[in-house]
Amino acid sequence: MDNNGVFVELIYTMGKFYLYDVNTNGIHEISKSLYCFISDNSECDYSVLLDKAETKLKNELEFLYDQGCLSNNRPKIIEHSATGYLSSLTSQYVSNLLLQVTKNCNFKCRYCAFAGDTNLERSHTDQSMDWEVAKKAIDFLYEKGTLSKKISISFYGGEPLLNFRLIKQAVEYADKKFAGRRLRYAMTTNLSILTDEMIEIIRTHDFFVTVSLDGSAYLHNKNRRFLKNGAETHEMVVKNLRKLREKVGDYTNKISINTVVDPEENYNEYLEYYKNNSLFDDIKVEFSTIDTSRLRYDLRINQKFKVESDIYKLRHYLSLIGNDQYKPDLINEADNSLLGSYYYFMPKSRLGDKEHHRGPCVPGIRKLFVTTDGHFLPCEKVSEESNCMIIGDVENGFDYANIYRLLNIGKLTETECLSCICIRHCSICARDIDNIYNLDVDFKREICSQRKKLLKSKIEKHIIFNELGLFNVIK
Q1: Which of these, 140, 54, 128, 48, lies nearest to 364 by C-alpha position?
Q2: Which of 182, 183, 190, 176 is nearest to 153 (CA)?
């Protein structure tokens, strides 16, 4: 679309016509006549459209304009809003430290980024973090998080409990270091290794444990096996989860379940397993589907899976319309989709001269991932094998030049981004365009095309939710 034209996207869905206005982030139903008129005159600004329009269309145009729509305003520079505050943010607001206490794991999970079946060039090794690196990382958090209201230290692997000695040492040190401040610990674990000493640490500290469990024995064991002998792991995980729940005390606020759903299987089997097992009463279970974007092997999506998941979502939405108490038993795509759709299209102020798509978070602030050898990365999802993702280390602190580069990846495609209808919603971050050696502009352009299609889908979903009255539940 020409830069002089109104900054909008036209949508036809459910037999009706809509206009998405980028500057206000609003979705408006319009007449078929106006839809066709704007489509035929997409290069025109508001004043030209008004001159060309017939009386009936003039009234409709003026109504939209009075609501702030139909501006041809576009940003002039692609720059992240946090750019000017990087020094202040990174010197005072670091709040969430993730320590990769080991790269070792006693599981081999088929979909894991470290399992050798993805293109992230990652693999499990025997390398573990030593105390000197952990101590320097905690000291760095103390120094750079002086204005953070909440401090979090998470332990990450591999399987973090394989280096429990270091976890215990880090907790004891951080407790003293941050005495008087709000400090919480977190860990994601396969829970195959659990001792009474580990439980006591979890019980007596503000610790939150996310347990990786993929449903029933069959579903779980399909993708999650012991590394050494390929033996099944489900029985051990459930046994230890039951023990942890019994001894930890306030388990509702200390334990959650993360289930990676396999689209080759039947969706209802996951639901039935958790609903019919008292072990999971009052424990949050979060569903996510296997990320296929980086897999080396083909994953065939079971059509029954798709139908069952769609039916579950529909039933979930219908229960909301029926004014049933909104208390989801599982945190799943249905809940995330509804909440996400509601907040995606909240009213926004007019686009400024400097804008950037929303994908990148400020590297090192939302999360600061420290590898076993002390390198800083933006989060646990990027590949530690990629030099372009390193934003510093425990010896030298932050690499501000690379933080700036990762924060402002929109500059790689600045011309396209300035007039892109996705500028408010594009979620591309540096991880998505990392080819292990550098940030790949061709990767970014390819994903840009996908994001535009995704935005149209999100607009259509928002319209359907709104028509059904689902947003009234949230309001």
Answers
A1: 140
A2: 183
Of 449, 420, 456, nearest to 345 by C-alpha is: 456
| Sign of the alpha-carbon dihedral angle for 98, 102, 108, 111 | positive
Report the C-alpha gap between 434 and 440 in whole angstroms. Answer: 6
Encode 261-277: b = buried (16+ Cβ within 10 Å), e = exposed: bbbebbbbbbbebbeee
The token pair that represents 44 in the structure block: 């025109």
Contact call for residues 412 and 444 (beta carbons, < 8 A)? yes
* Tokens found for residue 206: 């503000």
Chain Cα centroid distance, residue 293: 14
pLDDT-derived band of residue 243, with 50, 70 and 90 as boundaries? very high
Give the pLDDT confidence score for residue 171 in this predicted structure: 98
Alpha-carbon span 113 to 377, nearest angstrom? 16
Query: How high is the pLDDT of residue 297?
Result: 63
- Give the residue from 42, 21, 2, 23 showing the smallest Cα distance to 353: 23
| 8 Å CB contact between 119 and 294 | yes
Q: How many Å apart are CA 442 and CA 430, to the nearest integer?
A: 13
Distances in Å between the alpha carbon of 242 and those of 89, 154, 199, 261, 432? Answer: 42, 23, 12, 22, 38
Q: For the full predicted model, state whether its pTM sits above 0.85.
A: yes
- The answer to whether 138 touches 174, Cβ cutoff 8 Å, is yes
Note the pLDDT of residue 307.
75
Cβ within 8 Å of residue 167, ≥6 positions away: 101, 155, 160, 161, 187, 201
Averaged over 154-175, what is the pLDDT?
A: 97
Query: Measuring CA to CA, how many Å separate 77 from each of 31, 351, 415, 421?
Result: 34, 11, 9, 15
pLDDT at 323: 52
Structure-token match 């509601």, residue found = 342
CA atoms within 13 A on the CB side of 160: 23
The pLDDT-based confidence of 335 (bands split at 50, 70, 90) is low
Check the CA dihedral 188-193-199-205 and report its sign: negative
